[in-house]
């Protein structure tokens, strides 16, 4: 495949949303794979248990040597500003938001403003993966309800900024905004 031709087709900001285990990351990786040889993976997961370690390992095993990983569970803004490559995959905004909300020292509004500013200034195409959490039942506790509301607002802002928005359900992508490359 002629990567130089494909490279021009990916917009500045792509948002991929969907439920857990819906195929969002696989789609994001596929789009990035076809977008040049230098790919940056901005990882936001923190490993606190074996299940998360297995999930992270599964994601890593799908990426070839053309990927460079930056671990940024809190400071995605700086990572976006400093990263260099043909494309950046930010996986995922949901874990980034969880990290912010669970750390009492973080100012969520300020961190989101930094993230949005960095996304606007990023010099390479960015693919953001995020969970759609508003289609389930109303959570039973206040923190979970606060998270659901914050995730919804984050997704709305990201979707407004994005040139391309794709929703993935059962592994099937549906373009909500823009045009699929």
Gross morphology: globular
What structural class do helix, strand and pairing data support? Answer: alpha/beta
Q: Taking Cα atoms only, what radius of gyration do you get, to the nearest Å?
A: 16 Å
- The CATH superfamily is known as P-loop containing nucleotide triphosphate hydrolases
What can be said about this structure in brief?
The protein is of the alpha/beta class. It has helices spanning 3-7, 24-33, 50-61, 76-82, 93-102, 108-121, 142-161, and strands at 13-18, 39-43, 67-71, 87-91, 126-131, 164-169, 172-177. The protein has a seven-stranded mixed sheet, with helices on both faces.
Describe the structure.
- By secondary structure, the chain is an alpha/beta fold.
- It has a single domain (3-7, 10-177), classed as 3-Layer(aba) Sandwich (Rossmann fold).
- The chain is 43% helix and 22% strand.
- The chain contains seven helices and seven strands.
- The chain has helices at residues 3-7, 24-33, 50-61, 76-82, 93-102, 108-121, 142-161; strands spanning 13-18, 39-43, 67-71, 87-91, 126-131, 164-169, 172-177.
- The chain has a seven-stranded mixed β-sheet, sandwiched between helices.
- α3 links the parallel β2 and β3.
- α4 (76-82) runs parallel beside α6 and α5 (93-102) packs across α7 (142-161).
- The longest helix has 20 residues, at 142-161.
- Mean pLDDT is 89; it is low at 1-8.
Main traits of this protein?
disordered N terminus; 181 residues; Rossmann fold; 7-stranded mixed beta sheet; alpha/beta; 43% helix
